[in-house]
Design a protein that fits this description.
This protein has 80 residues and is an alpha+beta fold. Helix content is 29%, strand content 32%.
Length: 80
Amino acid sequence: MDVFDKLLRKVSSKDKRLLIEMMHELKSSESRKKLDIKRLSGGRFYRARKGIFRIIFHFDAERISIDAVRLRNEKTYRGY
């Protein structure tokens, strides 16, 4: 089972819509401005923040590679 599918099973339908909307905004360069995106310290990773969700990603030759989708907690950014 994929980690993303497991996360979608845990959250409410409202949060599912928010997360899917967030993924679409991340894919579009114009919509990316709506997200709170910051570079994580000490690396090549970025995080996008909206509501309770955090998407950790990096850029590969003008493409976005998503490394993790997590709920907000104190362990969210460990390892990045």
